[in-house]
Amino acid sequence: MNAMEAGKHLLLNLGSDWILYFLGMLSVASFGIIVERWMYYRTRSEDLASLAQTLDGFLSVRDFKGAMEELGRHPSVAATVAGSGLRLADRGPSAVEKAMDSAAALERGRLERWLAYLGTVGNNAPFVGLFGTVIGVISAFEQLARQSTATGSASGQIASEALMAAIAEALVATAVGILVALPAVAAYNYFQRRMASLLQGTDVLSSLVLAYLSDDTNKRPG
Description:
Elements: H1 3-14, H2 17-43, H3 48-60, H4 64-72, H5 77-86, H6 93-111, H7 115-151, H8 156-219
């Protein structure tokens, strides 16, 4: 038995049913991640205009402790980053800026969690489904060859109909693969945009904090 025959027998023994179960598990995991990420992103968002106005009131009177306490009441990404900077307010604007850059990097890591999975499923689920279809087509032609050998040419029409039915059944795997990929791709793109928006929103509060700290430094006697 050559390598081609061995490969064919291996694929026929495996069958294509496990492909559908595998795609089903990928789909369940994808939807679980989509729900979890949607809830997480929702809790980390904020009305930045309102929060910036409140923070401005504290910073304008140099009440950095009150500003930190106010930011601590908000779970948003922007509030977390700005609060990390204010903890080092006594060390000057440079230290504050570096602290906020560090906090923003940590927040990016939290926001990116599981997104790679969604991207991988979205890119590869159709190929997994296509693999199942290929196995199904190989099995269909193998069955056709056996039927033709056993019954002769008289049943050619029946064998042809059986082949078409088997190929149609095999194509289900490709359709399922595409069905699994579509929501994963859509969610991945949506969360990428949400993540970029949340990280850009940190500039609103970070710039406000640095503006007041820089002004406070300039007013100090030399």
